[in-house]
Amino acid sequence: MKQIFESSRISFVELSELLITDYLIMINDNENVNRFISKKSKQITLEEEIAWVRKKLEEKKLIFSMIEKKTGDFIGNTELMDVGGTERELGIAITAKKQNKGYGTEAVGALLKYGFENLGLRKIVLRAKPDNARAIHVYSKCGFREYDRDGEHVYMEVLR
Question: For residues 143 and 158, is the Cβ–Cβ distance under 8 A?
Fold first, then answer.
């Protein structure tokens, strides 16, 4: 797996079919992960996940898998989705067994640094479910500020 960038405890690598099993465990965990990132709670199949990874790699999307440096364990995935110009939308999902260990804060900080310093971004936005207080706390700690809210999402941004 090709490392793109790193932080103190995390290697950010390209998506990989070698991690498909880990991706499926994470995305199909409705209680701890999927309910915060998707409207649907449908179980993703192996074939669907392989097709998703291949499509994202072919499209050269800025999606990175996070690997714990110390153990080589899968932590989760991050993404900087294109919304136009020098603005991207941050997405992150952390597998249940790696939650509450500070990886979210470290990953968001590393993504902001990578986006601003390496990609020349001027603004990074995100959407969080209003009941995901833990994530909203992390985003605020990393410099995001809330700029809007509706029944489905809290909208946050950070500017360079």
Answer: yes
Give the model's pLDDT for residue 35: 56
How high is the pLDDT of residue 17? 94
d(C-alpha 13, C-alpha 43), whole Å = 25
β-strand partners of 126:
156
Domain ranges of the chain: 3-126
- Helices 133-141 and 103-113, axial angle in degrees (round to 10): 40
Instruction: Report the alpha-carbon distance of residue 14 to residue 5 in Å, rounded.
Output: 10
- Residue 84: what pLDDT? 85
The residue ranges of the chain whose pLDDT is under 70 are: 30-41
Alpha helices in 45-115, H assignment, sequence order: 46-58, 103-113
CATH second-level architecture of 3-126?
Answer: 3-Layer(aba) Sandwich (3.40)
DSSP secondary structure of 78-106 = EEEEEEETTEEEEEEEE-GGGTTSSHHHH
State the pTM of this model. Answer: 0.90
